[in-house]
Amino acid sequence: MLFQLHEPGETPAPHESERGHAVGIDLGTTNSVVAVSRDGETEVLRDAEGKGLIPSVVYYADDGAVTVGQDARRMLLEQPDHVVSSIKRLMGRGVEDLKTLAGTLPFKLDVAADGGMVRLAVAGRTLTPVEVSADILRALRARAEKAQGKAVDRAVVTVPAYFDDGARLATKDAARLAGLEVLRLVNEPTAAALAYGLDNSSEGLYAVFDLGGGTFDVSILRMEKGVFQVKATGGDAALGGDDIDHAIAEHFLAERAVEHGEVSITEGEAKQALAAARVAKECLSHSETGTWVIEVDGIPSRHSLTRARLEEMAAPWVDRTAAICHAVIEDAGIDVSEIQGVVLVGGSTRMPLVRRKVTEIFGREPLSNINPDEVVAVGAALQAEALTAGSDTLLLDVTPLSLGIETMGNIVEKVIPRNTPIPVAMAQEFTTYQDGQTAMSIHVVQGEREMVDQNRSLARFVLRGIPNMAAGAARIRVTFTVDADGLLTVTASEATTGVEQQVAVKPSYGLTDDEMATMLRDSLVHAKDDMTNRLFAETVVEARRSVLAVQAALKVDSDLLSDDERKDIDGAMAQVDRMIASNDRDSVTAAMESLEAATKVFAERRMDRGIRAALAGMTVEKLDDALGGD
Amino acid sequence: MNVSAVAAVIPCWSCKGPVATRALFCSVCGAVQGPGTIDHYTRLGMAATFDIDLDVLQRQYFGFQRRLHPDRFAAKSAKEKALSQSQATALNEAYETLKDPLKRAAYLLKLWGHPVDLTACGTINDRELLMEQMEKREALSEATTPEQVAKLAMENESEVIACQCHISAAFNAGNLEEAGHLAIRLKYLVKLADEARSKKTRVTRLP
Ligand SMILES: Nc1ncnc2c1ncn2[C@@H]1O[C@H](COP(=O)(O)OP(=O)(O)O)[C@@H](O)[C@H]1O
Ligand SMILES: [Mg+2]
User: Is the minimum CB–CB distance between B100 and chain A shorter than 8 Å?
Assistant: First the structure.
């Protein structure tokens, strides 16, 4: 290919100078926020009215137009079946999971979908949670691009610390669909701690208590001189203000039923009742009492509520956060009195009941000099800058949930316990239980319970090619690796014979590669373009690295080369540079191969020189030792 | 025989020139190297002894992570990202092992060719230890008030400390046999401490 044509609407890979700063994104259940950091100065990107929060609500119009945010939320009452909210609750969820969530979801599910990932029926379309999240991320990306006047294609995206592997992967997929490279997934409480800690130069043990609309997280961290070390984390990926809204809405509807009789209500009426409940709840954070109106069948009814009554209804959920906090303090192996401060995050921490509970749990007043709505995005923005521009701070996080595999009798054998620092790799050996068994099915689960069915199923795969042996003789080593994003990879091998099998684990509820490709193709980011750009960018990074490496080597060892040899190498390097400019991946790869060939002899001579120098540096005695000990 | 292994020099994966086997970065091209197979003490730059200063250990760990953690390689090539992940993984494993007295004792015993199996949940062979643990367990299960649990936990805690001192003495005297026995004892004391801690939270939170 000599030159590349860009069709209208397709964007070529941006040049470094046109590239906007990487952003930090808090993709919340209820609200999302995008922020950017330049030289340690963070800025939350706001709309014309100065609002940083974008409601995580998407409106799908009949003509295919997509609206995100406040405007979409307004459509909630008019066209409820065209609006999706709280989609985060479904990230990484399978159809089976919904049984436990049923009744609490403001969605209409696509009934045709059986097994695998959940699908929603919205405005005559079928959508996955990944696609809906991608629509929210696109809106955030657009806001960032408008603010910077440049293309933005990299982000740090936050996830609840308690998100499992499937939900993390779904979040990463959503970002990719929105044309964003995820530099890192950061846990929300960790991001909050980063923003808070850097701002207050705090040292010591801190707790972050994050109660939002749909998720609850609590983390205990040690902060010191630029190091943020998570000691333990816990939470509930389905606990938040939404639950309290439901309780209030049900209470209102029950009151109404007494007065007007039992009637079945429409989806729109239910959403309206929920909206009223939420307004009531938020209002009662600063008022003692109030009256709200809901409407069913065109007949309005008035409902009063006091803060005391609200607190009674909310108590079961708030108590659950307390139980989780106690467990996390125990996991951290500390005494509660050692905690020096509690950072509040999330809109629901505005409830006086929650603040009192936090004070009771930790035996101290929580810190209140931060904005609980924006602190997570600010932390993510700081981390985005640290990852792209460099920094000295260090985030050391942990796995929120234990990872294990199913063994005989449906029992889970833990491979990586919860709260293990990441990245981590741990292996466990298993054996066959039948003579001549040549395959073994491996079921990966995540969770704390002893029985398989009580945990989340992450993936299943089969290790084949186990040599024919007696039962119990094979030694199958299963290795779990969790990277810095908290994402798991599993590999298995048979140890006695060395039959190795790398198994790509397909998450039980994730998108398949085909689905992803189709979605990319259908999305505004053109699939082919996206993939080619990405692969090309990776190859260029690799090519630049190898040229720099050869240049560094020439600086110290160029005397090992004849003039002709030197000329060949210089030529090969120049060719790599030229091919990078040509924008064609195959040519860059070919040029790199030529460079490798041109430097082969040079590398050998350098090794010889290095070994001779190392040997000369050893005393005769040590050399004898070394040779003898071989 | 492999001469380069003797000389402790291997080719750098990036610039192909010689690099010391233990080097974290190539001195010529600056590329991060793989974690290799050094022991946990060497990895964190600590002397291989049972007695270690935990503050120093943590400082070393943070220092190495600052340079090797994947967050430092977010803009680098895929290969460098992968190597940094293995380096950070190895550092985590080393730190988690050495900061915990029980794991450290077991590791040191293994390093010195005298392994004890602490994961085996088999029966206690040592009669004296068995009796002692049974009594303590019974006392803990009978405790009903936070004060009673706290008292037992405190007694156990001082035994944990004493046991660690004895392990240290055994290592210093080169008595690995003794260190091995004590490590098994420590395992049970630590287990009891964990149980006491969760029992304490249970009884404290009861109305
Ligand atoms: N003043 C308030 N009093 C009580 N709850 C509030 C208040 N303001 C916001 N909330 C609740 O906070 C939740 C949203 O919090 P947020 O942190 O934005 O959530 P998320 O992180 O899940 O997107 C909603 O349930 C909302 O009702
Ligand atoms: Mg949040």
Answer: no
Take atom 2 of ligand 1 and give the residue whose Cα is closest.
A282
A183 in contact with B at a CB cutoff of 8 Å?
Answer: yes
Cα gap A344→A373, rounded to integer Å:
10
Which structural domain, as residue segments, surrounds residue A40? Answer: 20-239+323-396
Q: Are A549 and B31 in contact (CB < 8 Å)? A: yes
Domain boundary among A509, A533, A561: A509
Catalytic residue list contains A7: no
A626 versus A536: the higher-pLDDT residue is A536
* Residue A211 Cα: closest atom of ligand 1: 17
What's the pTM?
Answer: 0.89
What is the distance between the alpha carbons of residues A310 and A271, in angstroms, rounded to a whole number? 19
**Which ligand has the nearest atom to the CA of A280?**
1
Return the CATH number at A349. Answer: 3.30.420.40
List A500's β-bridge partners, or say none: A493
Convert the pLDDT of each residue in A398-446 to its tens digit. Answer: 999 999 999 888 889 899 999 999 999 999 888 888 888 888 888 888 8
User: Is A210 assigned a catalytic role?
Assistant: yes
Query: Which residue, among A222, A606, A622, would best test binding to B if mutated, counting the most B CBs under 10 Å from its CB?
Result: A606
User: Up-side HSE of residue A543: CA atoms within 13 Å toward CB?
Assistant: 29
CA A269 to chain centre: 34
**Residues B61/A229, Cβ–Cβ less than 8 Å:** no
Given A477, A509, A541, which residue is the final one in a domain? A509
Q: Which domains does chain B carry? A: 9-99 (1.10.287.110), 127-205 (1.20.1280.20)
**pLDDT cut 90: percent of chain A above it:** 55
Burial class from Cβ neighbours inside 10 Å (0-12, 13-18, 19+) for residue A111 reads exposed
Longest dimension (CA), chain B: 72
Which burial class, exposed, middle or buried, applies to A262 when counting CB atoms under 10 A from its CB (0-12, 13-18, 19+)?
exposed
Task: Report pLDDT for A629.
Answer: 38
Q: How far apart are CA A278 and CA A207, in angstroms?
A: 27
- Is some CB atom of chain B closer than 8 A to the CB atom of A535? no
The tokens for A541 are 């990074």
* Binding site membership of A240 for ligand 1 (Cβ less than 6 Å): yes
How many domains in chain A? 3
Q: Report yes or no: A1 at the B interface, CB cutoff 8 Å.
A: no
For residue B192, the distance in angstroms to the closest alpha carbon of chain A comes to: 14
Q: Which residue has the higher pLDDT, B52 or A509?
A: B52
Q: Do A220 and A342 belong to one domain?
A: yes
pLDDT of A81 strictly over 90:
no
Q: What is the rounded distance in angstroms from the CA atom of residue A184 to the CA atom of residue B1?
A: 44
Contact A34, A23 (CB under 8 A): yes
Domain containing residue A488: CATH number: 2.60.34.10
Q: Residue A599 and residue B62: Cβ atoms within 8 Å?
A: no
The C-alpha R_g of chain B, in whole angstroms, comes to 22
The verdict on A418 and A545 lying in the same domain is no
Q: Whose CA is nearest to atom 12 of ligand 1?
A: A347
| Catalytic option among A210, A242, A245, A385 | A210
Chain B closest-CA separation from residue A469 CA (Å): 25
d(CA A238, CA A117): 18
Q: Are residues A378 and A438 in the same domain?
A: no
Spacing of C-alpha A206 from chain mean position: 23
Q: Between the CA of residue A405 and those of A187, A408, A546, B141, what are the distances in Å?
A: 25, 10, 41, 32
DSSP-assigned letter for residue A511:
-
